[in-house]
Amino acid sequence: MSYSREQSRYRYGNNQFNNRSPGNSNNRYQNNSNIGEDGWGRKPSSNSDGHGYQNYYQRSPYSSNSNSYQSYRRGHVDQRYSLGSTNNSNTEIGHWTADRKRPPESSAATVTASNDNTYPPKKLKAPLSYCCDELTLEQQQYRSKLESQLQDGECIQLIPRQAFILPNAWDERKKRAAQVAMEYVLKELKKQSDANTKGWSDEDDSYASDVSYVGNKQQPGTLTAMEKKYFEALPDCLRMMTGFDIDGDEKLCYCPCSRQNEKWRKQHGLEHLIDQDILCSTFTVCEPLGLMSHLKKVGGVYEEKENRKMKKVPMICKFHYGANIFLRELYKDCNGDGIGHKALYYLNDDNYKKAERAVNLRKEREKQAIVKEKIELQKELSATEEKMLTLEKINSALYKKNKRLESEMEKLGIEQKERLELSAKEMQEWNDSINGHFTSLRNIFDTGTELEPIMPPIVISVERDVTGRNGFLLQPFLDNLYDEKRKPSIFNQQDFEICRKVLFGDILSPDEIERLKEKKREGKKPSKMKRFNITIALISKWNVIFNKTESYGRSKAAKELKELDTAIDEGGPSRQFFSDVWKQLHTLAVPVLKRKVQIFYQDKAIREEHGNPLELIPQRDDDLFKEIWKILEEHCDGSDAPEMEALLDDARTRIKLYARAIGRMMLHSFIHGYPVSSGVMTPFFMNLILRGIIPGDPRYDKGDIVKHMDGILCKSAEYALLSYKLEDGTEDKNGNALTKDTLFSDFIPAEFIHTRSQVLGALIDGMSLDGKKDASEKLQEGSQLCRILRPVPLEAISEILFARPNLTFEDVKEALEPVYCVLPRDVHNKPIWEGSEESLAAHKSEQKYFFETQFLSYIKDKSEKDSEFLSKFVECCTGSSCLPHKVVGDSFQIKVEFNLGIAADTLPKFHTCTKEIVFPGVIYERGADNFLEIIDSAIESSSNQFDMN
């Protein structure tokens, strides 16, 4: 396509720059004395005012008689915004006259011209923040990438921190914007290619073939591989976007075709793409609005007014035009609600003002959020300091423990994290999941199996503790089972054998069960003990019987009296039995001749010194057998080795069976919902046995390990927990010095788990329904419960399966549920009340006043005087001295019933099976003070006694 002569003269002026001054319409063309016949430019004269072009005009790739792109670009720019004086038509291109002031930099009319001049760079305004210490890893990487694109001598510290904090999915948005930019450029190239093919007339200058393919030296309408690479690299041209990302007017933007982005082009192999015709060699830093104006004027594809008519400007440079589209697409909605960056709009138009308002509003919200956050942090800090001061006054041991743990975690380089707080909804979901599993187990085995159609309740008959401290004594109970010493007054022969089998016996393997089934089909019915299925017994109901030491005789009356004195187990006796087990577990020992060796240890001095709760720790294998062997050497004097070996094997078997029995009692309690004191298992071993997670597992946080290890390793307050092992020369399993990583992954499992394989393996075996005889060799697998409990957070397990051994008045108060004015009922279960409604309301008012004032005050006062009172009171009401955590406490309420059907002089009654205490409805006949004394004596007389049905 060719231009008419007039158009050609207008655009290029026969190879002269067409500097048309808006102030002098008659001065249509200006001569340019700096353009020689050979097409080379000359540097401005030395008497210039210093604002002229400082570069030589480079030789055009076209001949002097051709339509030069460089000439067109400068001529087209100067056509609209002449920089010369109207009184001097021969002024050199780009020179300012002495009597003409420099246009204001914010003026859109001078942005392009100012970019083509080497004005001294304006100093940056002070941004909000330059501190980059709190950047995330991703933001630090972004900062490093931007730093790699800076020119020599430029400092990254001058880039505001806000430039590195980008929205989510920003990389994907940049890639999409680059793709859109490429599509727009291809669309314009296709238009120009179509225009050339059809042959436009001289009168139509919408597209000029002479300038359409600058930088596209191949078939028109397409992009080369290198040009496509340019568009794909635009998302990484960070110096172009920095000014946009800080929401200000700072001069931090550079054209991608400028010298300042040379390093970016080299990083992407584009150093040879931008030749001298396209290079913005005189471009300097500008604000986002200035960059957009530059890209628009140099890139083209816009409308402008000329001779009172709107004229379309074609695409001049695909690279500038593509960068323009890229930025418009990327920042078109950066302020939300369809409001883009203000640099995308004309200065001070409606959209520009909307964008400014949106930015100011967001900044104001951010300031308010920062102020609010500071206030909240100050409140938290004050509350924490106050809490620590209170803690130091009330419980100095716990305060010392917290300070020691903080120091320990600092030495090990562990960042302290807030404790996981599960919501009530999450806790309820985990509770439903766990209890649903145990309920399904009970339902499956209630129907029986092929080998044992129906299993009757397992009788656990124990002898009452004559001291009254416990319902029964654990040590003689297990000793008699192991030694097969049956007391006829306590156990009949069959119940004794079944009880021993349930607690100590080996669980039948699947092969053994199949063999027994085969014998039964053949008519060879095995004995009851051989076909006894321990798995079903562990899930089935247990009937716990507390027997008195005195003999009732063999008469009919004596048997009737014994039956009346024996409580029916509907939950209460079982809770009492397991509560006594947990309370006495720290005393459980292995008898060796006439001495005993503790299976668990609980150093009271360490607990008081370190502020640890009541938690048991299994003895180390070497400590156990060292103590046993020492006793044997003293007894046998080292002369009878076979006897010593036999006694040692016997002690080893006892340890295994006693720990297995404890594990099975714990499993039965979990399945049937009986409270298990959290003191019987530390969180460290809870993670191992119930979840199969040990230190070194990424799911076990190092900070939690340090907290859980407290009290297991330390022996005194001055002795560090773990960090000292990094300094005392301890080596790992490969003989290398311990590191912070191998300390957790190698040292702790080897030192504190595998050294306790005897007791831990037996506990794991006991808590597995199918049995794990080789559990001591596979401790890291945990028990069978790991299958359902491994995904459950430890915090949920500790609150759902375990109960609180240390009770407070508030705990007990929350568990109490008053039931007022309970009426007697007739044979048809209808309430009986002969009084008036007014008298019933009066009774209710009296009962409510008594409960909320006298009774609660009585419990509070007694708990302050006697540290064991709350446990004793709860045990009288429920059979257990522990209370479940509040999250599952809705079904574990202690009812305080006021019954109008019993006489006023009746003593309070405790029903452990239904978890309630029953008071007479009329409570003031003896006076409130006298009645409280009666409650006191009733609690003392009922503790650990099961004399009522």
Radius of gyration: 45 Å
What's the story with the biggest beta sheet? 4 strands, mixed
Helix content estimate:
40-55%
Task: Please provide the count of β strands.
Answer: 15
Strand content: 5-15%
Structural class: alpha/beta
Give the count of helical stretches.
33
What is the arithmetic mean of pLDDT?
75
Features:
alpha/beta; 7% strand; four-stranded mixed sheet; disordered N terminus; three-stranded mixed sheet; 949 residues
Question: Can you tell me about this structure?
Answer:
The protein has 949 residues and is of the alpha/beta class. Helix 12 crosses helix 13.
Brief sketch in words of this structure:
This protein has 33 helices and 15 strands.
Q: What are the SSEs and their pairings?
A:
Layout lengths: L4 H8 L56 H12 L30 H5 L21 H12 L21 H29 L10 H4 L12 H9 L4 H4 L20 H6 L20 H12 E7 L2 E7 L2 H13 L19 H45 L1 H16 L12 H23 L11 E6 L10 H10 L9 H12 L5 H12 L12 H6 L2 E6 L8 H10 L6 H13 L4 E4 L2 E4 L1 E2 L2 H7 L6 E2 L2 H16 L4 H32 L3 E2 L5 H9 L10 H8 L30 H13 L4 H10 L19 H4 L4 H7 L1 E3 L4 H7 E7 L14 H29 L3 H10 L4 E2 L9 E6 L9 E3 L4 E5 L7 H15 L7
Parallel strand pairs: 3-4, 9-10, 11-13, 13-15
Antiparallel strand pairs: 1-2, 5-6, 7-8, 10-12, 14-15
Helix pairs in contact: 5-7, 5-11, 10-11, 12-13, 22-23, 23-27
